[in-house]
């Protein structure tokens, strides 16, 4: 029974990987020229600093990519979506501050405080911010998962790839991604999971949050 269960788990992990790659094929772009114009980009959140106090390279590279995308005129607005489940932890405000430091106008940045998971960020992009065709901004592996979730919900999303940190820096993150892809497929195909919180719609072009 143990071998059967193990084989089943491996088969599901393989299925999840194949599903995510297939759904996102050709939609996550490394070059700006290939990114279609859109009303807004959704910058997927992560912590600005690591537990040891050092700068998080995933954060730095996502912010730089989002700034390039805006400055190239590919998007009108940036939605920074992350975790603000505690008063002392605020990914969206950290992202907004970093973008402003790079010269992005503050009134073009909207904070999504309830992007607790990638699924939450994706669904809220459509149901709260009214984006049917957003451009997700993150590293390639993360973009692929966001695109899978978006395509499953009928969104015409694309993505722009932030620089990937060196392999020695990202081994744990990449290993966690195996489980994250399995969870994404489970959430989409079986559990039909919804975001933890939706709330009132936010109109881009109105007062920024």
Question: What would your notes on this structure say?
Answer:
This protein is α/β, with parallel strands linked by helices. The chain has one domain (23-191): 3-Layer(aba) Sandwich (Rossmann fold). The N and C termini lie far apart (53 Å). It contains six helices and six strands, in the order αββαβαβαβαβα. The chain is globular and about 55 Å long. Helix 1 (2-24) packs across helix 5. It has helices at 2-24, 57-71, 91-101, 118-127, 140-152, 167-191, and strands at residues 28-29, 38-44, 75-81, 109-112, 135-138, 158-161. It is 46% helix and 13% strand.
Per CATH, the architecture is: 3-Layer(aba) Sandwich
Order of helices and strands: HEEHEHEHEHEH
State the shape. globular
Strand order of the largest sheet: 1-6-5-2-3-4
Strand content: 5-15%
**What is the CATH top level name?**
Alpha Beta
Q: How many strands, which pairing sense, and closed or not: the largest β-sheet?
A: 6 strands, parallel
Mean pLDDT: 95
The percentage helix is 40-55%
Radius of gyration: 17 Å
Q: How far is it from the N-terminal to the C-terminal residue, by CA? A: 53 Å
Number of domains: 1
Total DSSP helices: 6
Features:
six-stranded parallel sheet; Rossmann fold; 46% helix; alpha/beta; 209 residues
């Amino acid at each position: 029974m143990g071998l059967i269960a193990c084989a089943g788990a491996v088969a599901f992990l393989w299925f999840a990987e194949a599903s995510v790659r297939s759904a996102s094929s050709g939609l996550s772009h490394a070059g700006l020229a290939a990114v279609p114009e859109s009303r807004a980009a959704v910058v997927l959140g992560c912590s600005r600093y690591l537990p040891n106090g050092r700068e998080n390279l995933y954060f730095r590279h996502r912010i730089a990519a989002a700034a390039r995308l805006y400055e190239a005129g590919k998007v009108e607005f940036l939605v920074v979506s992350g975790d603000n489940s505690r008063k002392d932890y605020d990914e969206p405000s950290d992202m907004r501050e970093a973008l402003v430091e790079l010269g992005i106008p503050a009134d073009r940045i909207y904070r999504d405080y309830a992007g607790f998971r990638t699924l939450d960020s994706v669904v809220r992009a459509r149901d709260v911010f009214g984006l049917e065709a957003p451009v997700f901004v993150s590293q390639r592996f993360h973009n692929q998962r966001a695109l899978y979730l978006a395509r499953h919900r009928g969104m015409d999303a694309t993505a722009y790839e932030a620089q990937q940190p060196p392999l020695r820096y990202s081994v744990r993150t990449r290993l966690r991604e195996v489980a994250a892809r399995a969870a994404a497929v489970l959430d989409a195909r079986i559990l039909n999971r919804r975001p933890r919180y939706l709330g009132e719609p936010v109109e881009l072009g109105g007062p920024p949050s």
